Amino acid sequence: MVQFSNEQMAEFNRLVSHYPEGKQKSALLPVLHLAQNSFGGWLSSETLDYVAELLQIQPIEVYEVATFYSMYNLKPVGKYMFEVCQTGPCMINGSDDIIAYIGEKLNIKPGETTADGLFTLKTVECLGACGYAPMMQMGKTYREHLTKEKVDAIIDECRKTAALNN
Amino acid sequence: MSEQPLFKVTIDNITIEVPAGTTILNAARKIGGEVAPPAMCYYSKLEGSGGKCRTCLVEVSKGSEKDPRPMPKLVASCRTTVMDGMEVKNITSEKVIDARNGVVEFLLINHPLDCPICDQAGECHLQDLSYNHGKEGTRYEFQRRTFKKHDIGPYIQLHMTRCILCYRCVFTADQLTKKREHGVLDRGDHAEIATFIEKSLDNDFIGNVIDVCPVGALTDKTFRFKNRVWFLKPMDAHRDCPTCSGKVTLWNRGDEVFRVTARKDEWGEVEDWICNTCRFEKKKTSDWIIEGPRMIDRHSVISQGHYAGNIGTHKPTETFEAINDGRQPKLLMDIHNISEVNKPEITLSLLDRPAHSTDFTK
Amino acid sequence: MGVKLLLDKAHVEGIRYFETYRREGGYRSVEKALKQMSPETIVEEVKKSGLRGRGGAGFPAGMKWSFIAKPEGVPRHLVCNADESEPGTFKDRYLMEFIPHLLIEGLIVSSFALGSHDTYIYIRGEYAWIVDILEHAIEEAKANGFLGKNILGSGFDCNIYVHRGAGAYICGEETALIESLEGKRGNPRIKPPFPAIQGVWNRPTVVNNVETLAAVVPIINMGGEEYAKIGIGRSTGTKLISACGNINKPGVYEIDMTISVEEFIYSDEYCGGIANGKQLKACIPGGSSVPILPANLLLKTAKGETRLMNYESLSDGGFATGSMMGSGGFIILDEDQCIVKNTYTLARFYRHESCGQCSPCREGTGWMEKILKNIDTGKGKMSDIDLLWDIQRKIEGNTICPLGDAAAWPVAAAIRHFRDEFEWHVLNPEESQKRNYGLAHYADPIHVPA
Questions:
Q1: Phi/psi zone of residue C426: left (φ > 0), alpha (ψ -120 to 50 degrees), beta?
Q2: pLDDT in tens, C302-314
Q3: Is the minimum CB–CB distance between A88 and chain C shorter than 8 Å?
Q4: CA within 20 to 30 Å of B109's CA: B15, B224, C26, C372, which one?
Q5: Distance in angstroms (rounded) separating the CA atoms of residues C180 and C371
Q6: C351 to B107: CB separation less than 8 angstroms, yes or no
């Protein structure tokens, strides 16, 4: 069963407190982020129903929102998600090559997760880092000015961190 | 409410006076005929509807008496209120006709055009719109969009490929039921009407989504593949219903009730919402008090088989019997004896796709 | 060096934190506004400044403020649009990341002017780390008495909250943003009613871009009239330009709007010229939705005048030979870039970001993307080019919100100015997969300043 911890619940209450009374639905987007971070990086239908219950709204209202926004993962994803921008400004700076390189190195296509569950490769549209292209989002931060060498280093770093945590 | 002042508005050179706050579309409907723009998403009985399909775009060539400047863009007539002295061009504007042809083309590029097997055929607003504004042939050379099939219960059949995302069914569920269970999921060209988690819609009034749907996306499962609407005779009927007004239109052939719908006005809008019991459960003529034939627009294909004056549940004259002096036709072979299809125990309406011979060999 | 009003202190060590920001003269405008000015006089100053919305549309900010309805007993809200998602644009991110207190300061003054006691920053979901930066800045401002109850003893209460989006370009459109702030899908509303009358929770609402609100700080500090003296014509004050693409020094630059496009591209103070010694081919000067301009129309207008980096000059010639200032996302394409491919990725972007509410955008964006992909990959037909033109024409102006226009304009401009390149792709399906059309478009190669 999904259930926020006390600490997560406190954050939930803080988010809801930002909006006028009776308008708690407004907290839906931030709360879905919180839920996604709290429950394994994705939103199961159980999680969505839990959020609906917490915010006292109909489940369909949550489904409608969760499927609209591209940052919510409705299927499990790898521990590390490489979201590489492929829009115009990144494309003219070689994002296609970076996407191909990551795919080759991890032996996955965009949209897929490695067999070990460590990496997901995803192509995304403009992330607002056009001056630092090519780039990708990894968790909460951006990795910019990507080169093949940088990609190698990032993958190594992830593997090391994952090994340490196991 | 205090009396609204009257505004003078001229649409396609016809001037009428309407209360302030009236939309251009409703003003045009008062004039009637071709002056009324087509509306695929607007529904006067659903609050918040309209503005989305863009078929009702019109040109405002004069904003008002006070501010005569024309509006820079075409506007959605269903969501734009008239101003005093406003001048509007609908079918007299080339820009409007051009834009509307464009909208119709957009609505059709991903439409399956499966009218021959669609239960909505004959009463489909998209069909009418295409006849009026569509082109023969298509310029779209790509695979048409498909969706994963969703079963939404025993009463309502969802064909997402036919949907034009008018949102009417969403507004209906919001405004007629306490708990909406379906909605628009995903976004952009993959937005779809769905429930997310497979579930059947079973609110007492949810059947009304079938009547508000302008296309064949939501159809009556209990009527699925049973008959073509133009072979049926629509009759106004009522019953004493504890849930709804009980005022319906029966669609009969002989004394067999094929389906029950709400009564619809000349713009295709429901007059009174009806409950699921009336719609899906009362399929016997004896359940109803029949008032008389339902007036159907004479341009409608439904009128072709509509025999006015012949009130009641007269069975239509069966041609074969008539020409054979009352003898039943003698069949050279009974197709049901040799064919694999149409086995009575196979319920076609349970299939989520066109029937295939393999369905009958199981 | 031009005048700098927003980023002059952006590189002071520690400016991200309250103490340094305050020491460098921060929050003076709040003191001035709350102690010496009335909400009305602030609106007047902003009107006098000629400040135009920096999000893309360029609508006069003071005028927008004056539209807000003030019904008795109904709260009003100011919402900061930090949903920066227009390809090529990353100026707001820079401002929020490096000098967050400038935005907070501008928000406090603007909230006071509009009577907003609960003000929201709607930030795009991907800028997750900036949420932390902003929330920290808000906490600091609160701890120092610039936010919360009875700010500086003025009796004015104000709180600022950060609302994180979740990945949808459309939420940069103000009514979609409001829907999203209400916890709904980012479907733009059908206007009217306008947000100034019925915005978030049906309350009067003003939505302004990050840079617009930050610019309120120097306007209050120096006075609207002084601010209006900077720049030229109706392009007053300074503008942040985020420059990217094939240039030596991509980044965010603050310009006063008197410099020429040529200076901006080639001077070392700004872009530092085209990267790798290549030649300029084309430029999208105001974010991906504005019309692309070929080099010969970029540096000089059709009339042969020097084109300047401001609203009027960039749009000189209309869409036939001009473009737009837009959001200030300045994208440079060098001789090696393929216009067809670039247009295809932008079409893909707009298809991906269409909310799907209205038919022309939902269906038209996907159709354009598919055709462009065909042409780009050597499968196009000559008739596809005219078809594309017709599709974009039928989207433009016929949609609920400006995303339809934003999707149509890049396609229209690419065909308008680079039709030969599209035709070359169609006629040379194999060759076009191996090499670029390059600068064949131009009779005379573009002059590169020494």
A1: alpha
A2: 999 999 999 999 9
A3: yes
A4: B224
A5: 32
A6: no
pTM of the model: 0.92
The pLDDT tens digits of the residues spanning B144-179 come to 999 998 899 999 999 999 999 999 999 999 999 988
**Lookup result for tokens 């066109």:** B354
- Give the pLDDT confidence of B188-225 residue by residue, as tens digits: 999 999 998 888 888 899 999 999 999 999 999 999 98
Considering the domain delimited by C339-434, tell me its CATH architecture: Up-down Bundle (1.20)
Higher pLDDT, C30 or B293: C30
Q: Does B210 touch chain C if contact means CB atoms closer than 8 Å?
A: no
CATH number of C18-229: 3.40.50.11540
Pick the CATH number of B110-223 from 3.40.50.150, 3.30.70.20, 3.40.50.720, 3.40.50.1820: 3.30.70.20
Look at the domain B6-101 and name its fold: Ubiquitin-like (UB roll) (3.10.20)
**Sheet containing B57-62, strands listed edge to edge, beginning at the edge strand earlier in sequence:** B14-19, B6-11, B86-89, B57-62, B75-76
- The verdict on ipTM greater than 0.90 is yes
Q: Which CATH class is domain A80-165?
A: alpha beta
CB spacing of A63 vs B183 below 8 angstroms: yes
Examine the pLDDT at B1 and tell me if it is beyond 60.
no
- Quickly list DSSP for B334-357: -HHHH-SS--TT--GGG-SS---G
Contacts 24+ apart (CB under 8 A), C24-28: C26/C101, C26/C102, C26/C105, C27/C101, C27/C105, C27/C141, C27/C146, C28/C221
Count chain A–chain B contacts defined by CB atoms under 8 A.
30
Sorted by where each begins, the domain ranges of chain C are 18-229, 237-334, 339-434
The phi-psi region of residue C326 (left if phi > 0; otherwise alpha if psi is between -120 and 50; otherwise beta) is left
